[in-house]
């Protein structure tokens, strides 16, 4: 239970406050699970089942899940359950055999992207997808240097952890990695774009001076780990142009912002009016079944394909592809991109009203069903991590699950399943307002 501190993480100081049953489970975890695992919330939640936008604990308590984007269609969506069960009864094997279902899905997936992005390679996780994308980018550019935002998270393989600064000081960045600020209009106003253009030019020069060159700019288009920063939308195109001029490529990490979550089309980068060179997908792609992908321009992958034989045993195998196909079907059939835009707008309006009534809530921001609420010291922009954590814990005790994000852990991160309804949003707003009032009291 020891190790680097996690935002919204359980620590040993909270152990004595747990009931005997929970202490027993935590003790059993410590005796059998390997190093590095951590739990959410000061009082961890024991979950026994899920359905739609709800999780249930062993006592039958119902939690409104306003955080889980892995099951983007909601927990145990019947379309995915049925597709996986059906495929398991027919065939599960790998991509070294000709299979029409793999080609059908790939064509459908690529049709959701700009025409320039016309190839896809499958992996099991977003970490693997980012790892593969960087290998492809290195082969194409001949360079090693990577640029990310200062609190970015892109995965846990050794290669990808080396450019995931949010993992903390005990997971050092590689010598070939440089960081720039994430956009933060609350603190920097209209100067954000000019500031970041200057920063990226500076780190490009530094990478070149040290002999790394520029391989890739890797950016999550909602800047999730940087505190959920949806604006300004002209920024990514400007940064991508600087990197391309220096011989690098722009890799859009869509693991969190993709599959319609921002309510503005299928992919988060679309809000920014820029077409990436590579795109990585993960978590919500299979609604809980491990499946991920790297999507790319054909010309970007030519050098890698000439010299490397890539194979992933489970990447692109039949069962994950069946799950991913059911996800695409359901997003289209249930109009979930429109739902993300409409319900996200309802939430943003409601949170903005709540923020206006509390001096320690500085801002509500978001795009679709991806929102952040900045918690600060009263009448200030100084982050208040402890107050944010107390709000997250209060909501958990009132059966609403959210989390926190940002370099200082002071941004309430709200990222519910895409099937969130108007009634779900109203309940979330009601309980958030009550929790905020309790903090004021």
From TrEMBL:
Keywords: Aminotransferase, Antibiotic biosynthesis, Pyridoxal phosphate, Transferase
Domain of life: Bacteria
GO molecular function terms listed in the Swiss-Prot or TrEMBL record: transaminase activity
Listed Gene3D superfamilies: Aspartate Aminotransferase, domain 1, Type I PLP-dependent aspartate aminotransferase-like (Major domain)
InterPro entries recorded: Aminotrans_3, Aminotrans_3_PPA_site, PyrdxlP-dep_Trfase, PyrdxlP-dep_Trfase_major, PyrdxlP-dep_Trfase_small
Pfam families per UniProt: Aminotran_3
The family this protein is said to belong to: Belongs to the class-III pyridoxal-phosphate-dependent aminotransferase family.
Entry protein name: Aspartate aminotransferase family protein
Biological source species: Amycolatopsis silviterrae
């Amino acid at each position: 239970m020891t190790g680097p501190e996690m935002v919204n993480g359980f620590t040993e100081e909270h152990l004595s406050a747990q009931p005997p049953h929970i202490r027993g489970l935590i003790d059993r975890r410590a005796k059998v699970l390997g190093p590095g695992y951590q739990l959410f919330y000061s009082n961890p939640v024991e979950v026994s089942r899920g359905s739609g936008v709800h999780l249930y604990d062993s006592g039958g308590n119902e939690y409104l899940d306003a955080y889980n984007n892995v099951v983007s269609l909601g927990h145990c969506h019947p379309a995915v359950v049925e597709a996986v069960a059906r495929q398991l009864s027919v065939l599960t094997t790998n991509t070294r055999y000709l299979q029409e279902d793999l080609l059908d899905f790939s064509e459908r997936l690529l049709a959701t992207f700009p025409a320039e992005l016309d190839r896809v390679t499958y992996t099991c996780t977003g970490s693997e997808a980012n790892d593969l994308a960087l290998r492809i980018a290195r082969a194409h550019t001949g360079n090693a240097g990577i640029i990310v935002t200062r609190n970015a998270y892109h995965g846990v393989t050794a290669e990808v952890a080396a450019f995931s600064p949010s993992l903390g000081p005990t997971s050092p960045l590689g010598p070939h990695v440089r960081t720039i600020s994430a956009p933060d209009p609350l603190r920097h106003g209209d100067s954000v774009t000019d500031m970041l253009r200057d920063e990226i030019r500076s780190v490009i020069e530094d990478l070149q001076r040290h002999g790394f060159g520029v391989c890739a700019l890797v950016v999550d288009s909602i800047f999730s780990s940087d505190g959920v920063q949806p604006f300004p939308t002209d920024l990514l195109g400007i940064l991508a142009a600087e990197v391309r001029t220096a011989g690098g490529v722009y890799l859009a990490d869509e693991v969190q912002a993709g599959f319609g979550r921002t309510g503005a089309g299928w992919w988060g980068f679309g809000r920014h009016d820029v077409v990436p060179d590579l795109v990585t997908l993960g978590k919500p792609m299979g609604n809980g079944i491990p499946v991920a992908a790297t999507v790319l321009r054909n010309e970007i992958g030519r050098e890698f394909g000439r010299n490397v034989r890539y194979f992933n045993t489970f990447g692109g195998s039949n069962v994950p592809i069946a799950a991913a196909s059911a996800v695409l079907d359901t997003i289209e059939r249930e109009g979930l991109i429109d739902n993300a835009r409409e319900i996200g707008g309802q939430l943003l309006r409601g949170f903005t009203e709540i923020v206006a009534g509390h001096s320690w809530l500085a801002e509500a921001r978001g795009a679709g069903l991806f929102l952040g609420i900045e918690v600060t010291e009263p009448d200030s922009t100084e982050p208040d991590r402890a107050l944010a954590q107390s709000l997250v814990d209060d909501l958990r005790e009132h059966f609403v699950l959210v989390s926190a994000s940002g370099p200082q852990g002071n941004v309430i991160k709200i990222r519910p399943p895409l099937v969130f309804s108007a009634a779900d949003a109203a309940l979330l707003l009601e309980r958030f307002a009550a929790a905020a009032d309790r903090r004021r009291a």
